[in-house]
Design brief:
The chain is α+β, with helices and mostly antiparallel strands. The chain is built from 9 helices and 29 strands. The protein folds into 2 domains: about 230 residues, 3-Layer(aba) Sandwich (Glutaredoxin), CATH 3.40.30; about 290 residues, Sandwich (Jelly Rolls), CATH 2.60.120.230. Strand 24 and strand 25 form a beta hairpin.
């Protein structure tokens, strides 16, 4: 029987979850938040201070025994003696627990995988605990893993040995009875469990590496610790904005839906030069089993709104569309004029169209296709991301009532928040001009693009290119474009070229390296592989380039574009694989003027 298939079926059948965490260099461990003031008389810096990590006090509850709950104090018996959670609390550490049980391939693969790769990849602010579900042989099981790890640890320098000897724990208690840890395991029956830096229990994902035959890897638990560190940095960054926050979607379960929200008025909006989107997609419970299975694109779009919200013609009899037949001609559907309000409060004309029954007119056909944000869902895990879309403030300059549509193939507990702030930039985004869109990526791709002229305001203070670009398509072509090839995008502004490329394409760890930039680790699919402009379980970051020096205020600027592969037009060659689909570039690009 295929080991991977067996383990996956076992996981989903028993509801077993797994583990993760990683950081490859000390610089990437540093948080931007300040550390808690040390009121003791000690002159030696604390561990958290030496690592540049923010510290929090041990919480006194209330505690729980489920994911997201605060972890209460516990004491574990180990091969090195008792270990107390509260007594060893530093305020900046994370804690990961790995369980073993006889007769299961998956935990055996994890416990017996490379120790060097595990230690090389791990952040320093982690405690790892090894436990066994096997009653009566717990000590033997954890002694075996110590015998596997210790010789490799002794090959490292004395400082590393000293550090990890205090952070690798071999628990002799049965996992089911390991204090508050056991309480979580009793309800979840998982192979791995985490406690993050805010002292909360965390679900851990799939610890198998697709690049190594889908076998469980000890090094993959380090990805989860990296995620916990990233979350602290992310949340500190959000707090630092001192922003005005506006909630669009409030956490209710939705897949695709449209909602109205209120921005401040135009006078207040003129004070903002920065806009961040914060999106959280939760899976509810039982967590992984409820999450969408695949890496799908999801979008938020700005929408026009009908000038008259309630359709006054919904019950007005009309002529519906009638298709032509051999004996009759086609009959067009009746239409009535209506107006739509754009996000910038300008009005554009549109129409009501008679419905197919002729019993009334449909709603005013207001468009809803101006992309506000783009993300890619993870393979069966939740996510929480931030995106800088500051140039899109130009759409919202008038403030007031706005409409946004969210489009997803799966249902998530969706929380979408807009953060409006001021970063003392030159000017405020005031005008946005659409440029080029993508499409099928082939030898004819560039033939559709002609240069575009944009008048630059005489009082322009800043001009930016704003583009969101992601490549899709795999398997059908030899070069595996455009998901797994480095397509490059070349914009010229008055003859000055600006290029976007995707350097981590083809790297088996390309998206692992993006954990600190938002990638959700330990997903249940091929998440580690670098893609052409995106990663599963991550925001698609806009490409924002200041081109002010290439333009002259008061004069027209000429913008041209081409997309290339290996420096030339992309000419696809069929792979004959009988799977996948052809290359496509999903692109929205704009020129934005700030005054």
């Amino acid at each position: 029987m295929d080991v991977q298939a067996f383990d996956l079926r076992l996981y989903f059948a028993l509801g077993l979850t797994l583990a993760a965490g990683c950081l490859s260099d000390k610089e990437s461990q540093k948080d931007t938040a300040s550390t808690t003031e040390d009121t003791s008389e000690a002159t030696e810096p604390t561990f958290c201070e030496t690592q540049g990590l923010a510290s929090v006090s041990f919480s006194e509850g209330p505690f729980g025994s489920d994911y997201g709950d605060l972890a209460g104090d516990f004491q574990l018996n180990t091969l090195d003696g008792p270990w107390s959670f509260s007594e060893n609390w530093t305020g900046c550490d994370t804690y990961i627990f790995l369980m073993h049980a006889s007769g299961y391939d998956y935990p055996d693969q994890i416990w017996n995988s490379s120790v060097k790769k595990f230690l090389d990849a791990s952040p320093l602010n982690v405690h790892y605990f090894f436990l066994s579900y096997d009653e009566g042989s717990e000590e033997e099981a954890v002694a075996g893993i110590r015998d596997h790890i210790q010789p490799k640890l002794e090959r490292r320098d004395e400082e590393e040995q000293a550090h990890w000897s205090e952070r690798l724990h071999y628990v002799t208690d049965n996992a089911w009875a390991a204090g508050s840890i056991g309480s979580v395991l009793a309800s979840r029956g998982t192979w791995a469990l985490g406690i993050d830096r805010s002292q909360r229990f965390r679900e851990i994902g799939y610890l198998s590496d697709p690049a190594e035959g889908w076998e469980g890897q000890l090094k993959f638990v380090t990805h989860e610790a990296r995620l916990y560190n990233h979350e602290v940095v992310r949340d500190a960054q959000i707090a630092s904005w001192e922003s005005t926050t506006v909630t669009a979607f409030d956490g209710s379960p939705i897949s695709s839906d449209t909602i109205d929200f209120e921005l401040p008025d135009a006078a207040i909006m003129s004070e903002f030069d920065t806009l961040h989107l914060e999106l959280e997609l939760g899976c509810g419970d039982p967590y992984t089993e409820v999450c969408g299975e695949w890496d799908y694109l999801v979008h938020a779009y700005n929408c026009q709104r009908p000038a008259v919200e309630e359709n006054p013609y919904s019950a007005t009899t009309c002529q519906p569309y009638v298709a032509a037949t051999e004996s009759t001609e086609e009959v067009a559907a009746d239409t009535l004029a209506c107006d739509c309000i754009q996000p910038n409060s300008e009005t554009v004309e549109s129409t009501h169209t008679c419905n197919t029954e002729g019993t009334g007119y449909g709603d005013c056909a207001c468009s809803c296709d101006e992309e506000l944000g783009r993300w890619v869902t993870s393979y069966a895990r939740s996510g929480h991301w931030i995106s800088d879309v500051s140039p899109l403030l130009a759409r919202f300059a008038q403030g007031g009532t706005q409409r946004v549509r969210f489009s997803s193939s799966y249902t998530y507990e969706n929380t979408l928040t807009l953060h409006l702030s001021n970063s003392d930039k030159a000017g405020t985004p005031s005008e946005i001009y659409p440029l080029f869109k993508g499409g099928s990526f082939n030898q004819d791709y560039n033939s559709r693009y002609e240069p575009i002229e944009v008048d630059i305001a005489s009082d322009a203070k800043r001009v930016e290119l704003f583009a969101v670009i992601s490549g899709h398509g795999w398997g059908a072509e030899v070069d595996n474009c455009a998901e797994f090839c480095n397509h490059t995008h070349h914009f010229e502004v008055n003859g000055v070229e600006y290029t976007k490329e995707h350097t981590f394409v083809g790297n088996d760890k390309g998206c692992i390296d993006q954990i600190e930039n938002g990638t959700v680790p330990n997903q249940f699919g091929t998440w580690p592989y670098g893609r052409g402009g995106w990663c599963p379980g991550k925001q698609v970051d806009p490409w924002i380039v200041d081109v002010t020096e290439a333009v002259t205020p008061g004069e027209a600027a000429t913008i041209s574009y081409k997309g290339l592969f290996q420096g030339a037009d992309y000419v696809p060659t069929a792979s004959g694989a009988g799977q996948g689909f052809g290359a496509n570039i999903n692109m929205r690009s704009h020129l934005v003027i700030s005054r």
